[in-house]
Amino acid sequence: MHLSSLTSGRTGAARSKRARRIAACTALVVSAGMLLAAPASADDAKGADAPKAVGSTPRMDITGDGKSDILYQTRDGHLFQSVGGVVADYPVGFAEPRDEATQFKDIIAPGDLQGDGMPELLTLTASGTLTLHPIVGMDPTGGTPTWSGTGWQKYNKIVAPGDLTGDGHNDLLARTPAGDVYLYVSTGRIEGQPFEPAVKVASGWNAYDQIVGLNDSTGDGIGDVVTRTPSGDLYFHMGTGNASKPFKDASKIGYGFDTYNQLVGVDDINGDGYGDLMGRTPNGDTYLYRFSGYGHYRARIHGTFGWQKAAMFVGAGGNPDTGKRGLMGVTPEGAGYEYDSRNTGEFFPRARRFEFSDEEWVRVASSLGDDGRPDNLEVRDGSLYREYKRISDGWGAYNDLIGPGDLSGDGAGDVLARDTKGDLFLYQGKDEGTALAAKVKVGYGYGSYRHIVGAGDLTGDGRADVVAIAKDGTLYLYEGTGKASAPLKARVKIGSGFDIYNKFAAVGDLNGDGKADLVGVNGYGDLYRYTSTGTGTLKKRVRIGYGFNIYKALY
């Protein structure tokens, strides 16, 4: 997509089309807000004397009924709006020519940016391109993009909190891996420059593993935010309306929220004018927390189930993660079987996908491009191939390849290669994974490891990390830096006794929390999962399979 081809604004015909579409679908659509709502309770009565809500325009009102809808992206990269009941979820698309292979790393719903009553969506690619899309009612092709910007891969989280300045236009927040928070004030336009230059407004937010924009949850017309620590404590950040200091001091309002793998801002679900919060558990159940108008929530309500289908919610609080969500096993005969993640910490049944000859060896890398899918790397006769396409020569000197994701901070997936002397080299990805930059030596002494793996973020900063198992079974973490010249920090011991595993693999995010997980196979063929805490440590192992000794290798 070229910026010169972008158009500005939306036509009257598009608005008319939206109205016709809504009228035709009203009889069928039950909004996600209605699905999650519950009968009035004693908690509602207690909130009768809450501050009178000014009211904020819902950020994700695709149907035009005045209520926010739930939008989510599936594992294969398709965006849907949940309509509930017996009606199938409704696909939401975009009008620009789009490579069907592209899978967005994140989708952000800022709401109505220019005040015409219709919402916009922002899409983010892994390589850092942020694009603004007007949404025209329930038209599955959406509207033509009006703006696009690059360089956004420098942030690990982009948040749509609502209107933070009190000017009637919704704004953006963006957090760096170091924990600095920047405010992008809306200009009230959707073309040209929709946001003012970034202004740093906070620091230390790397203490939070989830940041959720609530829209207005206190009734003052100003956006609010909740944050969660890895240990599960929930904090409320009330908006001030002041661009230089957009939040009051954080107040702790809950604990135990680590039971959820995602927290999602769903705007006003029960019609009282206050933005609400939804939590999803690893098994796919959802719970609703209705805010009272005083900056705290009422007793939770059980919502709906089956939400493990969402690989990513629009409005979710966790760091977005894409690139690999599964495992491949290779038999001694060269048959490759894929195990796709259920998004619950377990795998779907295997599917046979590939055949490899005796003359080649294979690794599965986290995505090298914007398609969000793992890449099969093969070394055959000294040449490196990606999905059967030759990339370069001179790979016969290496005995191991690792594709952990973006190590250099440029948004492209990278490759690490270890030679027979134990030296480690970085190859930066470029051209959507069709090529690699010249190698750079980034370490030595790696020959002492029996396994070196990586696929995503284990420390919660959004950067790719690597783990290695020494011959004595010690597990070491090499935290990613985001710098090509020195992509890995000094190793830190995070476990022992891992020599019981004859196969070990990094599988990406298995339980839907955006953090990288690990699996190992012992001598009996049992498969164990190690779930990441997001702090560089691992939870206690859980057995999730057996019979994996039929494979000569797992990747």
Structure characterization notes:
This protein is mainly beta and 555 residues long. Helices cover 4% and strands 34% of the residues. The chain is built from three helices and 42 strands. The strands form eleven sheets. It has a four-stranded antiparallel beta sheet with strand order 3-2-1-20, with no helix packed on it. The chain has a four-stranded antiparallel beta sheet with strand order 4-5-6-7, with no helix packed on it. The protein has a four-stranded antiparallel beta sheet with strand order 8-9-10-11, with no helix packed on it. A hairpin with a 4-residue loop joins strand 35 and strand 36. The two termini are 34 Å apart. Residues 1-48 have low confidence and may be disordered.
Task: Please outline what is shown here.
This protein has 555 residues and is mainly beta.
Index terms:
single chain; four-stranded antiparallel sheet; mainly beta; 4% helix; 3 helices; globular; 555 residues
